[in-house]
Write a structure and sequence with these properties.
The chain is of the alpha+beta class and 330 residues long. The chain contains 9 helices and 9 strands.
Length: 330
């Protein structure tokens, strides 16, 4: 009975010692086996492991990718325009032994403080080498990659791998916003004024070219019209001269009748002329009593007499005055 009583505590103690010597490493963590503060084993693969009870302890670190949001940081780019930048980094522990040696027993919290300081230094280094416009342009991705590479090199001393760095905000300081917006507005207004001036200049050139083309076309058309009109007048005068040259007396008589019509119509009731003026040459030969034969009637009879006189000898005697000279009837 006494032996059984003694064996039970021994079995319980042995079981407790055996259980305390075993530990499990999860797939989401890495483990260090420490003996008096010295690293004896590094366990990065998931599974069941053993340690010396009471002499060795197990320290676990998260093996997953962790995130770090930095505080807003004021940087000065190459063009001296100050910017407020904050970033988000993703990192994980790559070397557990080096990480333990670098951060000590504090662990993740101390590592995040160190990583944030490294990240801020990398942001200042990269952003300070480029103008502020590059941060807001398509070069932003390249700048973030450069910041990641710089931070990764510095974080290797901590046993940490910086996987990615993203700039979440890039703003101007509050005290510089008004002046910056005013300067941007002035630049846009100046560019707009330049564009308007160039447009007006182009419009003037086009308008001047159109006006010159119009003048040239009108001048050419007027020249052609004057040439055509002159040729037509010359042809008219030739026809008139040819027609009236056959009988100058008829031409004078016709012109006098036209002059009488224009002078004695309308309100022209009075005329002051010399009695022997050539204007009344055809009127002076008219007998007021109607007994005499006027020059006008004599002239009116002339075409018939001329036609009868000029007709050929074999023409019919009773041929009309307007019959053709050859005696044929049309």
């Amino acid at each position: 009975m006494n032996r059984t009583t003694l064996l039970i505590p021994i079995v319980v103690i042995a079981a407790a010692i055996g259980l305390s010597s075993m530990f499990v490493v999860d797939e989401r963590e890495n483990a260090l086996v420490l003996q008096f503060g010295q690293v004896k084993q590094v366990r990065t693969e998931p599974g069941l492991y053993f340690r010396i009870p009471f002499l060795q302890e197990v320290v676990r670190y998260d093996a997953r990718i962790l995130g770090l949001q930095t505080q807003p940081l004021e940087v000065t780019p190459a063009d001296d325009r100050r910017l407020v930048v904050d970033a988000f980094a993703r990192w994980r522990i790559s070397d557990v032994r080096q990480f333990r040696r670098a951060v000590g027993v504090v662990g993740i919290q101390a590592a995040q403080v160190r990583i944030e300081s490294i990240l801020n230094a990398a942001i200042r280094q990269v952003m300070g080498s480029v103008p502020s416009g590059a941060v807001l342009s398509e070069d932003r991705t390249g700048l973030m990659n450069q910041t990641r590479d710089v931070a990764r090199r510095e974080a290797q001393a901590l046993g940490v791998d910086v996987i990615d760095v993203r700039l979440t905000r890039t703003d101007l300081p509050e005290q510089n916003l008004a002046a910056t917006y005013a300067r941007m507005r002035a630049e846009r207004e100046r560019e707009a004024a330049d564009e308007i001036a160039r447009g007006n200049e182009a419009a003037l050139r086009v308008r001047a070219l159109a006006d010159r083309t119009q003048v040239e076309l009108v001048s050419s058309a007027n020249r052609d019209s004057e040439i055509i009109r002159g040729e037509a007048d010359a042809e008219r005068n030739r026809i008139y001269a040819e027609a009236f040259g056959q009988d100058p007396e008829f031409f004078a008589f016709s012109r006098s009748l036209t002059s009488y019509e224009r002078a004695l119509t309308g309100d022209n009731a009075s005329m002051v002329l010399s009695p022997d003026s050539d204007f009344f040459r055809f009127l002076r030969s008219v007998d007021p009593t109607g007994a005499g034969v006027s020059a006008a009637s004599d002239f009116a009879a002339r075409p018939v007499e001329a036609a009868a006189t000029d007709a050929p000898a074999d023409a019919p005697v009773d041929a009309p005055a307007d019959a053709p000279a050859d005696g044929t009837n049309n």
